[in-house]
């Protein structure tokens, strides 16, 4: 990965959904790098390692093993690691409760899967790369 390119941190356990993101986003941001971790625990470790690049945006699934998206957000809120960083949820859940809880945890935007071209463009605008 090129350290001068914008970085999108994808927190997604599903290989098919990760493939879709890795296929769709580069269509609108050729200079972006995408780093995937498979759950909230791996994302937490990513942020705790000071040698890792700070992403331009975090694209977060909610339903994952080991540590789900809301648990990750709660943990990162304690650490202050996500301040000034847009977090976008891309989830299969359309629950009002999930949306509200994510808003309370500081999520910038909440989208229901699947990823579409319009959602892709909006995510990249939040990362200030579109």
Query: What does the average pLDDT come to?
Result: 91
Low-confidence stretches: none
Order of helices and strands: EHEHEHEHEH
Main pleated-sheet profile? 5 strands, parallel
Please count the beta strands (DSSP E, at least 2 residues each). Answer: 5
Query: What Rg is obtained from the alpha carbons, in whole angstroms?
Result: 13 Å
Q: What share of residues is helical?
A: 40-55%
Number of distinct helices: 5
For the biggest β-sheet, the strand order reads 2-1-3-4-5
Strand content: 15-25%
End-to-end separation = 19 Å
Shape: globular
Give the structural class: alpha/beta
Structural description of this entry:
- This is Response regulator.
- InterPro entries: CheY-like_superfamily, Sig_transdc_resp-reg_receiver, TCS_response_regulator.
- It holds the Pfam family Response_reg.
- The protein has about 130 residues and is of the alpha/beta class.
- It has helices at about 15-30, 40-50, 70-80, 95-105, 115-125; strands at about 5-10, 35, 55-60, 85-90, 110.
- It has a five-stranded parallel beta sheet, with helices on both faces.
- Helix 1 crosses helix 5 and helix 2 packs parallel to helix 3.
- The protein starts with 6 loop residues before the first strand and ends with a helix.
- About 30% of the residues are buried.
């Amino acid at each position: 990965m090129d350290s001068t390119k914008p970085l999108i941190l994808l927190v997604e356990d599903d290989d098919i959904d990760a493939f879709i993101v890795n296929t769709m986003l580069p269509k609108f941001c050729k200079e972006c790098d995408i780093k995937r971790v498979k759950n909230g625990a791996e994302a937490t470790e990513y942020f705790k390692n000071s040698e890792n690049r700070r992403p331009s945006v975090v694209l977060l699934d909610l339903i994952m093993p080991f540590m789900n998206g809301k648990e990750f957000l709660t943990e990162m809120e304690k650490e202050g690691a996500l301040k000034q960083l847009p977090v976008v949820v891309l989830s299969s859940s359309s629950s009002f409760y999930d949306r509200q809880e994510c808003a309370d945890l500081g999520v910038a935007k909440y989208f229901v899967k699947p990823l579409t071209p319009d959602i892709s463009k909006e995510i990249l605008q939040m990362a200030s790369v579109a």
